[in-house]
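Your task
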Amino acid sequence: MTILFAAALEDAAILGSDGRRSNLTTGQVESFDKTLQISSTIAAAKFGYGGPEADVVWERVRDLPPLDLEDIEGLLPKIQPLGAVVYEQQRALFAARGQPDWGMTLIFASYDERGAGIHWIDYRDGEGKPNSAWRRNSATEMVIAKGPPGSDRVAIDAMARSLRDDPTHSTVAPRRWAQDVVKAAGSLGSTIGPPAFVRVISAAGQIHSTITPHELVSDPIRYHL
């Protein structure tokens, strides 16, 4: 069990995860950063099948031409068939063991000249269709979470706790948000736990942080809703 969470703000995109995962191949619980940098403008994470056999999807993505990795709208249609192959392999492997389909969802956060966006490809129902939600098309921030039932509410409530009203805007502390999500989500699944990992993508580039559960969190940069 895991929780992934993402937000598209006015001036940044955020992608985070808890720091434990069950390796579906070995059965062991391990510490693992489920987020990764695809390029300076895109971060990604995977929900569902885990372990080296499923993680190979990211190796195949990184084999794409470098320029493709900077354009999320052009990249998603190229990733879709790569993920479909890995998903079908994993589904067949688990079916042969008499185990259920765990599904596989690829989640992306991006920030470029089009602003902040959250994107996903869900393979449980067929080959998967790329979906995008852009902050510019929403009247307020967008928050999503992938995990056990209740994950969306955990992420939204934690976002509310991280807000601060500045003179002209409400601002978000991404490190505190990530720490709060992982702490609260621990009650949703026994293998969800610290540390929290978070990536923030903005016009300044991509920042990656690891936050321990008892750390006194400092967010030197806050981002606008």
